[in-house]
Amino acid sequence: MNAAVQMNHITKKFGKLYANRDVSLTVERNSIHGIVGENGAGKTTLMKILYGMHPADSGEIVLFGEKVVFHSPKDAIEKRVGMIHQHFTLVPSMTVADNVVLGRPPIRFGVLDKERAWTEVEALCRRCNFQMDLKARVEDLPVGLKQRVEILKALYLGADVLIMDEPTAVLTPQEITGLFETLEKIRNDGTSIILITHKLSEVMDLTDHITVLRAGQVSGNVLTKDTNEVELARMMVGRDVFLQIEKEEQSPGEPVLELEHISCKNAEGVKVLKDVSLTVRRGEIVGIAGVQGNGQTELEDAIAGMDTMYAGSISINGKKVRNTTSPLRRRQLGLGHIPEDRQIAGSAGGASVEDNFLMTLYRQPELGKWGYFSRKTGRELLENQVAQFDIKIPGVKAEGSSLSGGNMQKLIVAREYNLKPQILVAAQPTRGVDIGATEFIHRKLVELRDAGCGVLLISNELSEILSLSDRIMVMYEGKIVGETTSAQADITRLGLWMAGITQEEDKITAAEEKNIAEQPPEQIAENPTDGKGGESA
């Protein structure tokens, strides 16, 4: 038997909803097995069953030829199954070495044997070809190195099967390359890896086999070498999906959003925006790329009027706004806003679906006359958009909280689209939606741009930025550190900017840049920035 994992006829229900229905898959020894599917397809639930976090209602798990039953992650770990979650489970104040051995500390005379712990972690680092400061506190590490600590933790506990849930969500391109090299080395050393991801290019680059889930069932089980992204997308959605949005070249018009020297601090008094200046013109999409947590959220909040404690100047559609100018007034000047956090800033869970849709539209002239708002007209518009955007709702009077995250996101996009904004700030517009809805939202953003709207696209998905943007800027530690056009965009250069490595007056030559790009991610993170990025005024 060459299988590391067999999951046979797994079924799991939550109430009346099937998360997994009669799912079977086989993970070969010494392989990387990809699991892809839309949001809600059952990928994470299936892996949580394998890791002992959920019991299956029916079906069986066979691990290296032995039938097993897990009641908790402890049971799975004892059988050498490890899982690295999308959100890390590290102790920030502890060192790298202490985090790695925390689950099974070596004890001598009743206390932690630090010398043995150090020796074991060093040996593990050599096995994985990791160069790390084991004395460093985790809270001081960049995201890529934190992820390496998680990998070390799982391997230290003896994982022969390693589950990784969306491992590249917050990494730079260089960190992703380093991660893939690590996973291939671990696979070649005898560990079987299961990769949950929504990025089809990554699953094609890294895996040996792919299982596709749709609506809780297996819709495809293929060798990676025998498939392609288009076929995978079709299996995920059940129809052809256009992965690349076609858009014609535009000649941008006058500025519709101007930011001059925007700076602000967070609640702890740390400066998170540092003298940011940029312009978005009518009929263009300007993408803001960067690893999450580099000031993008604060930039969004300052533009939308959610944060009033900023310095600098903002103009919307040619009119300057004050710090105290309300979000409503900014909308009246032509601003549309798809918030990063759809639950807190984008919707009201206790309000009806109808009110969630109309909360920014009810002042529109077509929805009423002489100061009166027509519920009938508003409901007709909602029903039209529900059909057009394929939003699944229990009913117009159902609470907003009854919608899935993806359907709420589509409702918000439909609402802002119908505002016919002059400038749209779209922050993570496709977070949490499936590949079919992503395609639809991308088309709507391009439609707005082609109709003369300026779009400021803030996204952690570099592929989304590259696909949609006319101009691209990169944020790092609260600054714009680089700018390019989509035609001239180079993913290596963008990745260096995202890591804070910029170029000025040939201080980094092309050869030096190639050398930097080939360094392990931890070395890139530790190198000082050689120059300052330019700003767009």
TrEMBL record:
<dbReference type="InterPro" id="IPR003439">
    <property type="entry name" value="ABC_transporter-like_ATP-bd"/>
</dbReference>
<keyword id="KW-0677">Repeat</keyword>
<dbReference type="InterPro" id="IPR027417">
    <property type="entry name" value="P-loop_NTPase"/>
</dbReference>
<protein>
    <submittedName>
        <fullName>Simple sugar transport system ATP-binding protein</fullName>
    </submittedName>
</protein>
<keyword id="KW-0813">Transport</keyword>
<feature type="domain" description="ABC transporter">
    <location>
        <begin position="257"/>
        <end position="502"/>
    </location>
</feature>
<keyword id="KW-0547">Nucleotide-binding</keyword>
<feature type="region of interest" description="Disordered">
    <location>
        <begin position="513"/>
        <end position="537"/>
    </location>
</feature>
<keyword id="KW-0067">ATP-binding</keyword>
<dbReference type="InterPro" id="IPR003593">
    <property type="entry name" value="AAA+_ATPase"/>
</dbReference>
<feature type="domain" description="ABC transporter">
    <location>
        <begin position="5"/>
        <end position="240"/>
    </location>
</feature>
<dbReference type="InterPro" id="IPR050107">
    <property type="entry name" value="ABC_carbohydrate_import_ATPase"/>
</dbReference>
<keyword id="KW-1003">Cell membrane</keyword>
<dbReference type="GO" id="GO:0005524">
    <property type="term" value="F:ATP binding"/>
</dbReference>
<dbReference type="Pfam" id="PF00005">
    <property type="entry name" value="ABC_tran"/>
</dbReference>
<keyword id="KW-0762">Sugar transport</keyword>
<dbReference type="InterPro" id="IPR017871">
    <property type="entry name" value="ABC_transporter-like_CS"/>
</dbReference>
<keyword id="KW-0472">Membrane</keyword>
<dbReference type="GO" id="GO:0016887">
    <property type="term" value="F:ATP hydrolysis activity"/>
</dbReference>
<keyword id="KW-1278">Translocase</keyword>
<dbReference type="GO" id="GO:0005886">
    <property type="term" value="C:plasma membrane"/>
</dbReference>
